[in-house]
Amino acid sequence: MTHSLHRRGTRESLEKDFVVLSCSAKGFNDSVFGEKGKEFLRICLRHNPVNFGDMKTGNFLYIDPEEIIARVSNTTILEVTYDNKQDVVEVIRELKEADLGISVVISGLHDVVEDIVRQAGLKRIHTREFSLGSHGRLELLPEYEILEFTTMCGHAMVASGLVKHMIAQCKLGRRSLRDAAVVMGRCCSCGNFNVNRAQDLLARNLKRWVADWPVY
Amino acid sequence: MRVDASKCVGCGRCIPFCPVEARRLGRLPGNGRVTLVIDSDRCVECGVCLRSGICPTDAMYQETLEMPRLIRAILSDPLIEFKATGVPGRGTEEIKTNEITGRIRFGHAGVGIEMGRPGVSTSWEDVQKVTRAMAKLGVSFCEGNPVTHFMADRATGDLQPDVVKERTLSAIIEFDVPLEKLAEVLRVLQEITPKLDTVYTLEVSCKLHPDGSFPVLPIIEQAGYTVLPNSKNNLGMGRPRFREPGEEDAA
Question: Which residues, at least 6 apart from A14, have a Cβ–Cβ distance to it below 8 Å?
Fold first, then answer.
């Protein structure tokens, strides 16, 4: 149901994590979405995204941004990730002025999103989706600190084993924190993975972890 | 996903990329050379290993999949478009376009049960346990959702027999319920949870009502669930707008 909703982390960390997305509405604007979607991305790109992508094409960590924009089709989902509130305010304000007529969604902390909506000049939120967390055999999940990385890709394309592998590589000095974050981010083709937050999480936690798994 | 053992050099670099840990190193019979072994029962055909480009010898390849195994790729690889919706992704438009479609209305809640998420994967036997339990409550499964599409009988929640033995990285059960039925849905879900051999992640959505409230919140709280501090929010900027009586524009 939703790719950007169930991100885990502390409030301090989630305050630097927003996904702004747009999706065509089947039977309503899916014959004209393509050009509007391209404009949506151009506006979003003016406000310092840390990642972005098209679910049908991939993300800008491995595809040229202009190519992603050129390939936007009438039936797709476009996702843009930011690491600070003010950039999102500016994006929504510009999208409001552009009045593209396509749906815009923000994933983020409830109260921070409400503040963004106010500051951007919108009246209110239309519909909200709440996360009620995970249930069932929770012992099958990796450690919470690993989930903070992996849940930045709701499609689970960033494997918990890859996160551990990147931690080990950073500890061994084989990769920089940035490089490790980008390796993880490339797996999340939609562009939802917040590479700056991943880098912060690596930096915050690196000394706490002991890499007791095989390093290939 | 398959590996060409004649090309694989057994470096193991692809192993960490697999979300379901379906890979290990083994030895070829005969010459004893080390090579990658993929557990095809465990592999959900998500394709992330291939897309990573990590293999130094291009030893991995995606074989052509037929049903029912094809369902693994449809539900696990986000780059594959599900033909019924025409949109990539495992669910539907849900709240993303609600100001246009009017799919979730005042007095109703959208429910999503994301089986196998985050990152555990799920058997479709487990998916069927939940669809059957929800069908008994008379919920209306969402059109255009892959799980709904692969149902044999929406009234019973029975899935098509050939897909029940499959496994996917996730499977999202989506439906709409009147608010007065939400508590019962959550209660039944709690009852069935110990019978599942996987995890699921749960979401509930609703429109902001004219009085400024989200009426699902007290129901969720009373059912014993905790709402996470982050949410997904439709800003109401799309057109043409679906309006209910007395509803003002959000944007």
Answer: A7, A108, A109, B229, B230
Please tell me the CATH code under which domain B2-61 is placed.
3.30.70.20
Which range, of A109-113, A179-183, A211-215, B55-59, averages the lowest pLDDT? Answer: A211-215
Given a contact cutoff of 8 angstroms between Cβ atoms, the answer to whether B110 and B104 are in contact is: yes
Give the class (CATH, top level) of A11-119.
alpha beta
Residues B41 and B74: their CA atoms lie apart, in Å, by 16
Q: Where in chain B is the domain with CATH 3.30.70.20?
A: 2-61
Residue B182 dihedral angles phi and psi, to the nearest 5°: -65, -40
Distances A155 to A2, A140, B77, B116, B122 between C-alpha atoms, Å: 9, 17, 8, 10, 13
- Tell me the chain B residues in contact with residue A168 when contact means C-beta distances shorter than 8 Å: none
Query: Which residues contact residue B240 at a Cβ distance below 8 angstroms, ignoring those fewer than 6 apart?
Result: A28, B100
* Contact in structure between A55 and B86 (CB atoms under 8 Å): no
Please report the DSSP string for A99-110 in residue order.
T--S--EEEEEH
- The DSSP string of A159-206 is -HHHHHHHHHHHHTTSS-HHHHHHHHHHH-TTS---HHHHHHHHHHHG
Every domain of chain A and the residues it spans = 11-119, 138-208
Q: Which two tokens stand for residue A18?
A: 């927003």
Residue B222: other Cβ atoms inside 10 A: 11
Say what angle helices A160-171 and A195-205 make with each other, to 10 degrees. Answer: 60
Residue B36 at interface with chain A, using a CB cutoff of 8 Å: no
Name chain A contacts of B91, Cβ cutoff 8 Å. Answer: 1-2
Please answer yes or no on whether A23 and B93 come within 8 Å at the CB atom: yes
Q: Token digits for B149? A: 């599409």
Q: Mutate which of B104, B232, B243, B248 to disrupt the A interface (most A C-beta within 10 Å)?
A: B232
pLDDT tens profile A24-71: 999 999 999 999 999 999 999 999 999 999 999 999 999 999 999 999
CB contact under 8 A, B99 and A216: no
* pLDDT tens digit sequence for B1-41: 999 999 999 999 999 999 999 999 999 888 889 999 999 99
Residue type, A71: R
As beta bridge partners, residue A120 has none
